Amino acid sequence: ETKSMCTSQHHFNPLGRTFGMRLKNCAGLMCGLTCGCPLQSTDQHQQERTVVSSCCSDNQLTCLLKSYLNNRVRTTKYTVLSFVPKNLFEQLHRFANIYFIFLASLNFVPVVEAFQPEISMLPIIVVLIVTALKDIWEDFRRFRSDHEVNRLWCSVYCRYNGKLWDNVGCSSGDFVRLSCNEIIPADMLLLQSSDPRGVCYIETANLDGETNLKQRQVVSTMEEGEFVPENFHWRIQCENPNNNLCRFRGYMENPSGVRVGLHNSNLLLRSCTIRNSESVVGIVVYAGHETKAMMNNSGPRYKRSLLERRLNTDVLWCVLLLLIMCLTSAIGHGLWLQQLRDPVFQVDGETSPALAGFYVFWTMIIVLQVLIPISLYVSIEIVKLGQVYFIHNDLDLYNEQKDCRIQCRALNITEDLGQVQYVFSDKTGTLTENKMVFRRCSVYGVEYPHHDNGRRLEVYSAEKEETRRCSLTPWSSSRRKSLSCRSLSCNRSSVSLNTLTAEEEEELSCQSLRGPSAFDSLMEVVPDGELVRRLNWLCSPDLSVVNSSTKGSSSPELAFVTDFFLALAICNTVVVSSPSHPQAPFRSLEEIKLMFQRLNLSTLPVLPSLPSPLKTSPRLLASKIFTRGKMGSFTVSKAAILDAAEEADLYKSITSEPPCAEEEGAVDSEDTVLYEAESPDEAALVYAARAYGVTLRARSADSLLVQLPALGSVQVPLLHVLPFDSNRKRMSVVVRHPLTGQVVVYTKGADSVLMDLTRTPTGNSRLVRHIRMQTQKHLDSYAREGLRTLCIATKAMEEEEYEVWLKTQLLAESSIENREELLQRSAQTLETNLTLLGATGILDRLQEEVSETIEAIQRAGVKVWILTGDKQETAINIAFACKLLCPSDQLLSANCDSKESCAALVQDFLQRVTCYDCEISGTPGPGAPYTGTAGCVLVIDGFTLDWALQPELQSDFLELSKHCKAVICCRSTPLQKSQVVRLVGDKLKVMTLAVGDGANDVSMIQVANIGIGISGQEGMQAVMSSDFAISRFKHLRKLLLVHGHWCYTRLANMILYFIYKNVMYVNLLFWYQFFCGFSGSVMTNAWVLILFNLIFTSVPPLIYGVMDKDIPVDVLLAHPELYQTARSSKGYDPLRFWLNILDAFYQSLICFFVPYFAYMGSDIDMLSFGSPINASALLIILLHQVIESHTLTWIHGLVFLVSAGSYFMFVLLISVLCVTCSPPTVPLGVETRQMSQPSFYLVCALTTVTALLPRLLFRVLSNTGLSSGPHTPAVDSARAAQRWDLSSRANRLSVSGSCPEVEPSSAPVLS
Fold it and tell me: Which PROSITE patterns does the protein's record reference (predicted)?
């Protein structure tokens, strides 16, 4: 193998970043033209792809490989030559840039020139250069990243030893060898693994964020023998590149025509990491931009907020105002020229008044261009970045256990968090922990309540509450403040989130303040005493005595119990490993046979007879197929629920050997196995089976090692695994029983599906009907308690029946077209006539502070909908637990089986809730306004929801939902979730927010206006598709009520202030036109005119938009009604916009005419007259923000001083040094002379006070009016906020205001 494999330093990009699909390589096309080899036809190419070994001697196939993309990636947007034209082209797509370029070009026309043309180019040049520099930096970072990852090396097989290929990267058809912990360079088909079982494990954290290991299987025909690349003559036919991570269809065909099906478990995806495998060899099928990782990443998310859409309307109003001013100036100049007689100054008499007015119109467009806020959009982006920074560094939104803080993935919709009206939430993993704990079970129609396990969980809840209280102590608070927030995403260990360790449990508590825990591992199950005694009968020396006992168990019941726990142990896809120690000795086959011969096997559902002894020794089989390796750190400690003697007997009955004296009452740590499950449900069931002695010891691709109580370890041949999917709602495994050799199917799934698939045998129908009836009662009871329910069933197959099904299954696996449909049809054929074994109830506890969060959100006037796939009873129970439902609420349950019944029921509910609304509100008639206060809650199942979402019933369904306080959609599919969110958002015109944690929530998250993903137990698909990512549902409370409120009010006030200052300054130039014949002249030099808004007054609005706090955080959290008040008052609406414009007009009038009347009759020149106007305008604009600000810190003071100081320093330098820098005006000595006169300061002071007096008076009166009036919670909250505001104004310069959202900490914070 070493000789046939040489290491070539080839380049690949392990982490997928998208730049879009590129065209096929020109090399491949040129190859087809030069050598004449026919490439695939268009139709064939659209359907499938052909891949062969790169060592193939067939020229046609070699040319076909060259037509595919190589593994080099390029995510940069520009090259050295294309940057300038391409970047300019992109920036010219913005209308504002085109507008200002047009004005700058217009100023070069002599007849409309307003001032020096070069100066007019300054604003647009600055904007274009700053944007270009930002684009250069971002593209350079992409280029550097591409360069680094493309230079990484991987071992690629070379046909000729010693030949080094060029740096073109591995391509389709190349053989690649990888070692443990190496990143997969491209999508490869697994052909060989160092593991003798023919498997390897990959970690997909770089792809989807999941840290639990996934098992991949070598292609079936390649499992045996050593892989030699030269001997690989198979042709791979697979689907074209696509972005579906969960699907891969194709087959391999050898020269003799034998085909082998390929599926997703044979594919190693690019950017994943090899784990727990010494080495693997694969052939590349997709490379570069054709890999699933590259095609799956759609780049950064961009959404337009509601505030931005309103801003566009107001900018159009500013354009209209500009046109009115310019048109007024043009008409005024024409009339002035017509009435001008014997002018004392030079006037162009050859130009008609109409044409002169036309020229003045364009001149005024140039002069008043500042009215259109060119820098507003850039300022908004900067403000949003500042807001995101403070949200990201909020310690209250930091999860200490996961070392995870909030992620802001969509940077431009932060203000929409303050306008949410509907919240759509998933249940499992979003409201609940998604850390499943086995709670109860029903076997053979008998329920086992597991009371000891329930008391253990109550102790856990009490300890968790103590932990939460401990987190409020000063010690804990200071500790939290010194925590490190090291990354934008959750830092996860290599241990799966489903693999809970004792250390992780200890981290949930305040170790210095709490006593010993009642248990060390949450997943550990305390067995039910009655069920343990039934399993102990298997070890009884005299089974007849047990059967004759009144409390004894019959052979059928014991068989059901045994099969039940065997199904829990093996019907899953968990990855198993254990500490490296010798395997416990197997029981001899004769001992096992003798043990089972003591039972009446004719009554067993899957053990009808005993075959001849197996020829292979279990010890030999175990040493051949099982490999041990440590994959995590899971420690098991058995809780003491019995006395010492009973514990010894229990341990002996399960392990067949007594515990050590020093470890009595605890399971030996050497017998610990480590489970890593893809879902928490699987982990909970496997741990439950292990608690009863049915332990899954090891797993391979074709066999399982299971330890049974009193029997030891046995091998279970694994024939097929039919994985879970959302359509079937179940999973199955097909095994060959180790004792009987009979083919057996074990199935677990939702009770709504599995109960219909069970059969009633003719021989014992009464017993089976009794079992089904009792099991259904237990399921309903579990659902009412809020437990997640699963049914367990089995089926024994004859060899002929299995052979017929096997042919169908193999045909489906080898198909390319309609492979999923064929596989599903094959699974449905197998999963029929099942024998019901029992059911399980799994506890999924609520997350902490969920009820407080939902209650606060509802008090804020936000409606909460729960969209879940669980049973109706489970969802209702959870809704009561989280206070979404109250005992006094009227519950409306919609369960219909036809469209007509659904329509009638919705109409009936609509009439009932309308009457209920009238009774509550006291307003008669069906046309009463929808106050949303009625205590009606609608509960609708998935079948009824299908009818309700149809166009004929949509309006009635929405009308009903508007009357309801909350809506719970049960048994809903991912498609239904997205349809509901889209329907409510589009039809009701409301702001929607969707929150979820799993892949089934992705469509709902993407459809909502705001999508929030929770980094929970189901991977990171929801997080990767979201706008914001949080670690706990409770963080939603502060994110909406505090940061949402602040972001909206800050940005709205900043936009209004920005427009105000532009209008105010532009009006000064407009009033001057009445005294200069509307000629377009200005009373200031061009430099001050251009830089006034561009530099001198540009920074204060940014600080205002980032750091202002109108209401403190504790008041916002204590009084959620303020969120609704701020949302309904519309901090940025047309009324406030026009009042802001009127205030700007008033202040401009005062700022212009106070100096005008002060200097009337004097010989002051034009620039000297403009000097106090500009200075007064600067002071008015800055002090106006001081009045409007609710929070003032030393940062605000510093910015104000720098802004004012920079203006005065600049005008003084111009006055001293400028001689010809601003033609035709000469500002030399103007400012120095003006500032040396006391009248200058007197005029500025009088102008500033007069202009700001109405604004200040309005604020005083509004604060005084807030102190009196009716006492409502919202008003009281506003008063409290105002008192806080007034107290903060008394302390204007605070020394701790650099980060208003994060409390100051003396402890260092690492970054």
Answer: ATPASE_E1_E2
State the maximum Cα–Cα separation within the chain, in Å, rounded to a whole number.
134
CA–CA distance, 456 with 454 (Å, rounded to integer): 5
- Among 911-920, 1053-1062, 1177-1186, name the one with the lowest average pLDDT: 911-920
988: helix, strand or coil: helix
Q: Residue 503: which H helix or E strand, with range?
A: helix 502-507
Distance CA 223, CA 195 (A): 10
Binning pLDDT at 50, 70 and 90, where does residue 1231 land? confident
Whether the Cβ atoms of residue 420 and residue 503 lie closer than 8 Å to each other: no
Shortest CA distance to 913 belongs to which of 949, 872, 962? 962
Percent of the chain with pLDDT over 70: 72
Q: Which residue has the tokens 């490999």?
A: 627
Catalytic residue chosen out of the listed positions 426, 520, 563, 844: 426
Written in H, E and C, the secondary structure of 825-861 is HHHHHHCCCEEEEEEEEEECCECCCHHHHHHHHHHCC
Distance CA 269, CA 250 (A): 15
| Mean local confidence (pLDDT), 709-736 | 86
426 included as an active-site residue: yes
* Best CA proximity match to 1190, nearest among 1049, 1095, 992, 990: 1049
In one letter, which amino acid is 656?
S
- Pairing assessment for the beta strands 695-699 and 703-708 based on DSSP bridges: antiparallel
Q: What is the mean pLDDT of residues 666-695?
A: 75
Taking alpha carbons only, the member of 1001, 1077, 1048 closest to residue 860 is 1048
H or E element: which one contains 21? none
Name the strand (E) or helix (H) holding 1264.
Answer: helix 1238-1266
Residue 1298 CA, chain-centre distance (Å), reads 30
β-sheet bridge partners, residue 273 = 183, 203
Question: Using N-to-C axis directions, what is the helix angle for 353-367 and 306-339, rounded to 10°?
Answer: 150
Q: 269, 207 in Cβ contact below 8 A?
A: yes
Our measurement of the distance from residue 980's CA atom to the centroid of its chain's CA atoms, rounded to an integer in Å, reads 19
Dist CA 240 CA 1115 (whole Å): 57
- Give me 705's structure tokens: 């090692």
Place of tokens 């290599």: 494
Query: Residues forming the annotated binding site?
Result: 426-428, 682, 724, 748, 788, 868-870, 971, 977, 997, 1000-1001
Instruction: Identify whether the C-beta of residue 373 lies closer than 8 Å to the C-beta of residue 1089.
Output: no
CB 832 within 8 A of CB 756: no
- Report in angstroms the alpha-carbon separations of 1258 from 870, 1138, 1182, 1285: 55, 16, 18, 16
Judging by beta carbons within 10 Å of its beta carbon (0-12, 13-18, 19+), is residue 132 exposed, middle or buried?
Answer: middle
pLDDT at 676: 78
Q: For residue 468, count other CB atoms closer than 10 A to its CB.
A: 13
Binding region for ATP: 426-428, 682, 724, 748, 788, 868-870, 971, 977, 1000-1001
Q: Residue 945: what are its φ and ψ, rounded to 5°?
A: -65, -35
The better pLDDT of the pair 452, 1089 is held by 1089
pLDDT digits (tens, 9 = 90+) for 1134-1159: 888 898 899 999 999 999 999 999 99
Mean pLDDT of the chain: 75
| Tokens describing residue 1269 | 């009036």
Is there a contact between 453 and 519 (Cβ–Cβ < 8 Å)? no
- CA 164 – CA 170 distance, rounded (Å): 12
Is the distance from CB of 1018 to CB of 998 less than 8 angstroms? Answer: yes
- pLDDT tops 60 at residue 465: no
Structure tokens at 362: 């364009």
Q: Would you state the structure tokens that stand for residue 834, as one six-digit string?
A: 């099942």
Per-residue pLDDT, averaged over 209-214, amounts to 66
Known binding-site residue numbers for Mg(2+): 426, 428, 997, 1001
Q: Check: CB of residue 926 under 8 Å from CB of residue 919.
A: no
